[in-house]
Write a structure and sequence with these properties.
InterPro entries: PPR_rpt, TPR-like_helical_dom_sf
Shape: elongated
Helix content: over 70%
Keywords: Repeat
Protein name: Tetratricopeptide repeat (TPR)-like superfamily protein
Structural class: mainly alpha
Family: Belongs to the PPR family. P subfamily.
Distance between the termini: 116 Å
Number of helices: 47
Organism: Arabidopsis thaliana
Strand content: under 5%
Length: about 800
């Protein structure tokens, strides 16, 4: 860095060897004044001498008088094409005390692209003159240059000389020089960072005229945003009030932009700013209110949102489409359908032209809530308003109709889409395919799938998931598995929904080993099980066949532990399964503790929870505990249901307490709980096993008279009672009645009648019924096989193999 002290002649000679001697001599020339022309000639001569390196010209007595400041700057300007010479001359003039204009040398250097050198010279000026030196210098000597002003402002800001930066900005704007916006923003940031917001307020009108407003970001908005970001809320609000009190013009657009930013995560600050705007201006518009209404709606603070809506109306500002749609959407998302619909009707009554988006979102809310009737009313009102539905509207209605099982009406809506020349979306297809699959019409579902592909819509994981679920629910598991493999072949990643459908499908077929294989595949493919996965697999461990052959109840409990380790929140359905598993494992104390934790915790037990506890205690003959839970259930909001009372009736019948069972059965009628086929079955079974078989017949007839369809279990109870009394022909007649009632006899029904035939010696009929059972796909269980081994069948029956094999041998 060069130091311009006049105390060292040697330094001067080092830096300016030849030219220095010329300039020194000039200082000692006579002091007679020059005319303006003489000064220009002198400046031109010095300029020529420096450019040509001919310093002898400067030794001439003609140039002996001292140069004036403006003449020094004239020399600098004449050297614009030779910036290095100009820089040497500037440094000589600075040492010689001629106070050369820094603006002028900066102009020369910047014009030649020497920004780094200009920065260095500014640093030298600060070192030698301090921060109080006149940055503008003789800036008034020539027209201003925007780039030079920008440079000077940025240098001043870099050294914290924000007042000088603002001085340069104000002076340049007065002369019509437009400073680049980024420079103005940096200067404003420096003023804010230096806590000189007062200077911004003092020159607010000039800042607004300085080219910043046309950019879309006002000085007002910029300052408020910066202060709010720093957390200086009070200063920001004080600045706004100060600007308004001084009568400066502030546009509401600027305030709206600031409010929009604040309403995202500083809604309380936004509310304070709005209050200030309402108090001192500028006059708010509908956008001002809508901005905060939207912010409150997103936070679910609907009371505050509606209060603002009313303030807007009170100030004579008519709510527009945006205002109504924002508030309506907020109410719907908050689950306040009544208020949302009231506001929706109010908007229509006031003549507000609601668009297809508002109508579609309103229809969607009612579809999701299952109120398809109201959704249909809104749809008709939309048509009456002359608003044409779009694909989104139709798709929402299609989804609602499919969920309601009205698949063919939904397909009619699909036809409307095609008729109007619209293109169905992938959501349209997925809703329709899901609807067809859920109603068991896989053929139509796959036909739509093919149409979608022809239309150029590549199926996504949702479409594949719907089809896999449809196949799984129909028991077509091999097709479902193949379809899943097809997904992988098309680089579509299987998700947890697809795996859940496959697991559920195998469980429906009692193929628990296959279900567990799919569960293990989830880990291989890196799919994290969800609560539905664990619920399904844990329920497998409850089933008798499952835990006897493939799983144990303890495995279900281990799955629950795994679920907790994976931080998957269990719902009440999972908790009910856990209680059932604990009883299966005879862990009564753990089941009781788990139940008590539910009651004391955040998750409320439901009716299934209470019924599971009662059933568990009854199965382990802890009737006192079952009665205690029953008493707790009676004081709950939902109370005992048919299942609860049926469990108790079953236990009383098992304990031969028929009076208690009949009394409980009477309570059901009094409490309005309708008995079902299982309830009647418990009573019928007791009568069937006692001496009073006629009691079973009476209950059987009563059940049918009350419109309760007997199950195959109901028929099996009657058949068993008749067979035990040797009334096989009557039993056979009841068996065929079950078949006529479209019921499929299970292995229990077949086994009862086969044993009945055997007991009365009608082995041929027993063998024929056994063969009939096998041909209908019903496999004999171990109990039936052991029962039949007690009888000695004829050799000719043995030769046909219909007695002891799982399936008949070919004739």
């Amino acid at each position: 860095m060069l130091l311009f002290s006049s105390s060292s002649l040697q330094l001067r000679e080092i830096f300016f060897p030849r030219i220095f001697s010329v300039f020194v001599k000039l200082n000692f020339l006579n002091s007679r004044g020059f005319s303006s022309d003489s000064a220009k000639a002198l400046a031109a001569g010095i300029s020529k001498a420096i450019k040509e390196g001919n310093f002898n010209l400067l030794d001439s007595s003609v140039y002996g008088s001292n140069l004036q400041r403006n003449e020094t700057n004239l020399v600098l300007l004449s050297l614009e094409s030779e910036p290095n010479s100009a820089l040497k001359y500037f440094r000589w003039a600075e040492i010689s005390g001629k106070d050369p204009s820094f603006y002028t040398i900066a102009h020369v250097l910047i014009r030649n692209g020497m920004f780094d050198v200009a920065d260095k010279v500014f640093d030298e000026m600060i070192t030698n003159r301090g921060k109080d030196f006149n940055v503008l210098g003789s800036i008034r000597d020539r027209s201003l240059d925007a780039d030079v002003c920008k440079f000077l402002m940025e240098c001043c800001c870099r050294y914290g000389m924000v007042d000088k930066a603002l001085e340069i900005f104000v002076y340049s704007t007065q002369l019509g020089v437009v400073i680049p916006q980024d420079s103005v923003y940096r200067m404003l940031n420096s003023l804010i960072g230096s806590d000189r917001v007062d200077l911004i307020a003092d020159h607010f009108d000039k800042l607004c005229r300085g080219g910043i407003e046309p950019s879309g970001v006002s000085a007002h908005g910029f300052v408020l945003d910066a202060l709010f970001c720093k957390g200086e809320v009070t200063k920001a609000l004080d600045f706004h009030r100060l600007v308004m009190e001084r009568g400066f013009r502030v546009g509401i657009v600027s305030c709206n932009k600031v409010l929009k930013g604040l309403s995202v995560d500083q809604i309380e600050v936004a509310s304070r700013l709005l209050s200030l705007v309402l108090d001192c201006g500028p006059a708010p518009n509908v956008v001002t209110f809508c901005t905060l209404i939207n912010g409150f709606c997103k936070r679910g603070e609907m009371d505050r949102a509606f209060d603002l809506f009313k303030v807007m109306e009170q100030r004579g500002i008519e709510p527009d489409l945006i205002a109504y749609s924002t508030l309506i959407d907020g109410y719907f998302k908050a689950g306040m359908l009544g208020m949302g619909h009231k506001l929706f009707s109010q908007a229509l009554h006031k003549g507000v032209k609601l668009d297809v988006v508002v109508f579609s979102s309103t229809i969607d809310v009612y579809v999701k809530s299952g109120d398809l009737a109201t959704a249909s009313v809104v749809y008709k009102r939309m048509l009456c308003q002359g608003i044409s539905p779009n694909v989104v509207t139709y798709t929402i209605l299609i989804k609602g109709l499919c969920q309601d099982g009205r698949i063919y009406e939904a397909f009619g809506m699909y036809g409307q889409i095609l008729k109007r020349g619209m293109e169905p979306s992938i959501v349209t297809y997925s809703s329709l395919i899901d609807g067809f699959c859920k109603c068991g019409n896989l053929r139509s579902g796959f036909a739509l799938y093919e149409d979608m592909i022809k239309m150029g819509y590549p199926p996504d994981v949702v479409i594949y998931g719907v089809l896999v679920d449809g196949l799984s629910k129909q028991g077509l598991m091999l097709h479902a598995m193949r379809f899943s493999v097809k997904m992988l072949g098309q680089s579509i990643r299987l998700n947890v929904v697809v795996f859940n459908s496959l697991i559920d499908g195998w469980c429906r077929l009692n193929r628990f080993d296959e279900a567990l294989k799919v569960f293990r595949l989830m880990g291989i493919y890196g799919i994290k099980p969800d609560v539905a996965t664990f619920t399904t697999v844990m329920r497998v461990s409850i089933m008798e066949d499952a835990f006897c052959k493939h799983m144990k109840p303890t495995i279900g409990l281990q799955l629950f532990d795994l679920m907790q380790r994976n931080k998957i929140s269990a719902d009440i359905a999972v908790c009910n399964v856990v209680i059932h598993l604990l009883f299966k494992c005879h862990r009564i104390e753990d089941a009781s503790k788990f139940f008590n934790n539910l009651i004391e915790g955040k998750m409320e037990p439901d009716i299934v929870t209470y019924n599971t506890m009662i059933c568990g205690y009854c199965s382990l003959r802890r009737l006192d505990e079952a009665e205690r839970i029953f008493e707790l259930l009676k004081v709950t909001p939902f109370g005992p249901n048919t299942v609860t009372l049926t469990i108790l009736i079953h236990v009383l019948c098992k304990n031969n307490d028929m009076d208690g069972a009949i009394r409980m059965f009477s309570i059901m009628a009094e409490k309005g709980s309708k008995p079902n086929a299982v309830t009647y079955g418990c009573l019928m079974d007791w009568f069937s096993k006692s001496v009073d078989i006629e009691g079973s017949f009476k209950l059987f007839e009563e059940m049918q008279e009350k419109g309760i369809s007997p199950s195959i279990v109901s028929y099996s109870i009657i058949i068993d009672g008749l067979c035990k009394r040797g009334r096989v022909d009557e039993a056979t007649n009841i068996f065929h009645q079950a078949i006529d009632a479209k019921l499929l006899p299970d292995v229990v029904a077949y086994a009862i009648l086969i044993r009945g035939y055997c007991k009365v010696g009608r082995l041929v009929e027993a063998a024929l019924l056994y063969e009939h059972m096998l041909r209908n796909g019903v496999k004999p269980d171990d109990l039936l096989q052991r029962a039949l081994s007690e009888y000695n069948p004829p050799k000719w029956l043995m030769s046909k193999g219909v007695w002891v094999h799982d399936k008949p041998m070919p004739d």
